[in-house]
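Input record (one chain):
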Amino acid sequence: MKFDCAIDEEFARGLAAAQGAITEGKLVVVPTDTVYGVAADAFSPTAVQRLLDAKGRTRQMPPPVLVGAPTTLEALAVDVPRYVLDMVSALWPGPLTVICKQQPSLNWDLGETRNTVAVRMPNNSYVLALLKTTGPLAVSSANATGESAARDVEGAERMLGEKVAVYLDGGPTQSGLASTIIDVTGVAPRVLRSGAIDLATLREFNNAFEGVAN
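The corresponding structure, as predicted from the sequence alone:
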């Protein structure tokens, strides 16, 4: 099923359908502020495995988790440095993915995470509306492994087809730039992937950032 989010009544129906699909352990394609993503219930191992299978990925490539509020980070992670809390407060929602130490009490299985979790709050009203009804979702770019990430719902549908139960069409994504990924689990923070948030901005919060420069 595909729903046009630009039409209020259709978005309302699509949101309900997407919430139902997530509850049933099925996959949903959603627009974000970077590229389209394919989402699953983060707390359902079966749903997460379905996501990995749809993309052709192994458990060695666990999906990040999208959240609906910056405060959710502390519920999913432990030992989060103060500068990281300041950073997400200022930069979320936005294209910044933060890898932290995972909360040990979490009852989920995202794959071989090595006790870490990658978290982001996207700046897109449609997916945020869904996140507020479902809670954290495991979300990876909506594409088959080896293909470019979809920037519109048609591209996602072409690659994922009937593996996905619900498609939310939010129109073409604005930037197409991937999120910047930082790892804050070590002594010094590192940039693992250069993206929409540049190194200079990150160093405003901690000048020790090292890794890929934009």
